[in-house]
Amino acid sequence: MGREGARTEGIDHAASGRDRPDADDVIDSKGIERAPGEKPDSTFSQRALGEDFAERRARAREKLDAVDPHKRAGGIEADPKRREWFEAVYALAEDDPAAVPWAHLEPRPLLEDWLAARSLVGLRALDVGCGLGDNAEALARAGAHVVAFDLVKRAVQWARERFPQSAVDYRVADLFDAPSEWRGAFDLVHELYTLQALPEPLLPDAARALAAFVAPGGTLLVISRARDNGEDLGGPPWPLARTTIESLAVDSLRLVALEDIPASGGLARHWRAEFRRGEAGG
Q1: pTM (two decimals)
Q2: Residue 242 and residue 229 in contact, taking contact as beta carbons nearer than 8 Å
Q3: What are phi and psi of 112, to 5 degrees?
Q4: Which of 135, 155, 196, 226 could lock 269 by a disulfide, CB 3.0 to 4.6 Å apart?
């Protein structure tokens, strides 16, 4: 799937043509650009294009922070896997995508850039924490047979409503208790922003869960906000340190590419990492 053995660091993100905002950084209230007369892909896009999108998101973020136990001491004990908070996000959203912090009604730029350089035709892909479905749909457009899951039932319903003609198989599932038939079943596992939303004590179990999905010869793609080792940036979300990214190479996965993409034009610093599992019998 490309760039075997490559390790690229210090990429100038602005030079990639994706100098665009990301979740919780800068919100583009103009929404998705379309050609004249082009219809939106989803039934929820028109509302999100309103000029008050950023204001709605800011108000929602205040409410969500107020009910997030991880914003204060005792969060691990109160909501150890953040299930209650994730469910609260969708319950409080009342069908407004601006109220879902990670919803932008288009695929994330760092995924789009990665997909532009490769074909997924005929591959089986898993989208972890699919939210409203935009990244899963991008994987499907690249040719993959996609299963996408989220912990929250309302998120999965919303994705299905947005993309009623989609070939993506949207499921409700728990990363830590996924269906047994998914073990070793996917050529590509895509994880964007789920790890950075989890408390640090859960990350080793999350790493093993992600690795378990990857088929022989398959790839795990992880995209997250980045921080330096030892740097405390608060949270949630909790940007990942390089040591945390490297620690995802478990159960025969190996890190084959790690990009340190600097902050640029309102986009926070990010990691984009690829892990590979060897071929069966190799």
Answers
A1: 0.83
A2: yes
A3: -60, -45
A4: 226
In a domain, 245, yes or no: yes
Check which CATH number belongs to the domain holding 165 and give it: 3.40.50.150
Domain count, the chain: 1
d(CA 38, CA 47): 16
Q: Please, what are the averages of pLDDT over each run of 10 residues along the chain (282 residues)?
A: 38 32 32 34 49 91 94 90 95 96 94 96 98 98 98 98 98 98 98 96 97 98 96 88 98 98 90 94 61
Contact present, 186 and 214 (Cβ < 8 Å):
yes
Backbone torsion region of residue 195, taken as left when φ is above 0, otherwise alpha when ψ lies between -120 and 50, otherwise beta: alpha
List Cα–Cα distances, 191 to 101, 211, 214, in angstroms: 17, 11, 12
Question: Which residue range forms the structural domain that includes residue 214?
Answer: 13-25+107-277
The answer to whether position 126 is within a domain reads yes
Nearest to 96 by CA among 46, 165, 32: 46
Decide if 219 is inside a domain. Answer: yes
User: Residue 203 has what DSSP assignment?
Assistant: H
State how far the Cα of 11 lies from the Cα of 3, in Å rounded to an integer: 15
Determine, yes or no, domain membership for 31. no
* Two structure tokens written together for 187: 């050529």
